[in-house]
Batch of 3 targets.
Target 1
Amino acid sequence: MFHYMITVSYDGSSFNGWQLQPDNPLITIQGLLNYELSKFTGEDINIRASGRTDSGVHATCQTADFFCNKTLNLKNFPKEINRNLCDSVRITGICRVRDDFHSRKSALSKTYSYFVSLSDKPDVFFRRFVYTPCMPPLNIKPNMCSSPDIEFMKKCSRIFIGKHDFSAFTTDKSPDKSHVRTISDINISIIENTDIMRIDFTGDGFLYNMVRIIAGTLLQAGYGHFTYDDIKHAMESRIRSNAGVTLPSNALFLTDVEYDSNFFI
């Protein structure tokens, strides 16, 4: 029995998220990959990922692992299986891992990136993958779209660094689930030669809609709708209605997952 980890990139626009839906498996990323990997190996494959991205969310570096009896040619495998995958999903790499490796539980950190167009008319090629603040839910006036206070957003982002209860920044209301997470870094930048803002969130894990709500809160701060103390109060209150809006899923990407190198064979 061999244990493999794959890296996957996908455009999540036409999928109902990562997690398998047994009644209609091929509308999810996990269901599609289970199907294609099972067909390729001749075995019943069930992959497990570093995180379950929601409907409409994308990935440039999702990781997933699976066991199988077949010895796979690591060099040729991505090219061979990608021939059978749809245009919106690609396996970009594969490696052997130890038997005790788990894509989610073994992850040291994950990074999600949210992309915001600071133009009321975003680039024609990128428009499907960015959020424009003059659109709902923010509805910023078009003449104000290009001028959020980025330095103030950076200041406010430091509120989220560290270990906190993020109950105000999630729509997950599971009573028995801990809402404590650790964010190690939030980086806000403008992509060179564009009007696209990129907000990177790195942490040990993220709650349902957490990144999209924090991104919305920071943008609202940048446009003058939240003060620094408002955000601190939201964090301390643990009340969802005190935090900002949930931004759309189309501009969110899983961009990195880090592991201890000792897991790799």
Note: The mean pLDDT is 97.
Target 2
Amino acid sequence: MKYCIGVDGGGTKTLTYLGDMAGNILDSCVFGPSNYYSSGLENTKNVFSSIVNYYCHNHQFNTSDLVFISLGLAGVDREMDKTVIRDIFVELNINCDILVYNDARTALVGALGKDEGVIVVSGTGSIATGIRNGQLVRSGGWGHILADEGSGYDIGMKTLKTIMKSYDGRLSYTTMTEKAIGLLKLDGVEDIIGFVHDPDTDKKKIAEIATVAIQGAKEKDMLAMAILDESVEALIELAKAVIQKLYSQDEPFELTYIGGIITNVGYIRDKFIHEIKKSHPKATIKKPAQDGAVGALYLGWNKYGVSY
């Protein structure tokens, strides 16, 4: 029997599935982070090794029985990145076909069940990707320093900046101040400076502060609502930049979305959908059918002509 593995790897966790070459999913398991930019090459190598060893051991097969490993990985866009990933498997003595994609593409394929359409991602970071007739385009996804507008990180950082401006008197009072101090277990507003410069404060910790603005918006805090409104506008901008490159105004297309912010924050999701439908009435907006690790399997199966 021949096997394959689908991988959706990010900065916090790596979701995987074991499949066979008849288009069946046999098993799944979650591992640690596998974004080599944030986790390091050695950690990423250890995660990949653990994935293969886990499935080989639990299902009693050898690495020679693997036909392909298809990976959708955060931060992997350039050919250089893909070479780095393939080299890891060479070092691990795993010689099957290694397929490497950006995780937005595998998420799109998993969500819509095909290699066509548009996806908007808003979690810790943000990106929009679209595919039509084999042409892949993107907008955003350049990391938290250059982009990630409308993401959890973006909302968290804007929340902190708004709190500091309110503290100065440059903006009005906001309930977010007390919420943030409580969440971060700080003594006062000025301790936020130490928090943001702490070496242990990473993107994920900043993104967690988005909950402060989300709760504030629920309580009708005007400054919190303004932050979320800016996020909606940013995500619409990302989506439209992709849509206009692939579809004319009156063409139908499918759009989906993933990520903790756009999926779980109704204030953002509902406004985003409303505005996209208003500007593109022929758009069909769908909830994701499957995740990115399944999408990675789909892409691998497509290459080998496997029906699923």
Note: The longest strand covers residues 66-73.
Target 3
Amino acid sequence: MIKLQANKKIVFAGISIAVLFFVVYRLFWHKPAVAVIAVKKEIVQRRIHGPGTVQSKVPVSVSAKITGIVQKLNADQGAVVKAGDLLAELDTAELKARLESARAAIARARQDVEKARASVTKAHAGLVLAQSNYKRDLEVFNAGYISPAYFDLTRAQLKVAESEYAEALKTVEAAQAVLVQATAEAKATEATLDYAYIRAPMDGLITARTAEIGDTVTPGVPIFTIVDLKHIWVAAWIDQARIAHLKEDQPATIRLRSGRAFEGKVARINKEADTVTRELEIDVMFDSLPEPLV
């Protein structure tokens, strides 16, 4: 019994010494690893997010300049076109008939002018002859070799020749006026005929086509909508409370619905907020145009 108690004391003393040794070790000898970070000065970036849509800065509506029936469609939505490309054609049968009639009128007017000029030449020759006869008979009449009645006839012939020459000149002027009018009408018809061919006003992408073959189109009603691919941006909506942190030409990141991200910059900040959402439109231009735009 006495031996068992002695053993317990020895075990207790050993445990006490081990605990004391562990405490002393932790306090004086053990040095745990500590992560050290160097302090440096950096700018804290503020990130502002907002939903947006891909838009064109320069959308253009293409419409007809004259009323007509669509005869051909040479382009459709999604097509990339160049300035001057033929997009659509209107029915030109009536315009071509008018142009042929105008050209025929020009031909007739030119013939009339030539005839009138020939009449002027003839009348001028008659006038010269009448003037010569009058001058000769006047000398003879003054000398008393011819009667007054004969001289009156010569004088009357001169007046007729002068009248015929003046009338011939007027006929030429009238024929030339008709020719000028016919030429102007032909040019106007040619211009109208050219309006039947609807062409792209610029390089770009067709985003909409609203007419079909057989439709009657009128001036001002859009047939196509074209956007300039060189000026594509994202119109984003930002809460007006955060607008103070934005400025034009500020770098931005555009993340499309596909998840792809592109760099850009703030191109324009709208000054008027939506009265309901209190958001302003911010337009962000792509640094390089993504392909495709999704």
Note: The helical segments are 2-29, 93-143, 148-195.
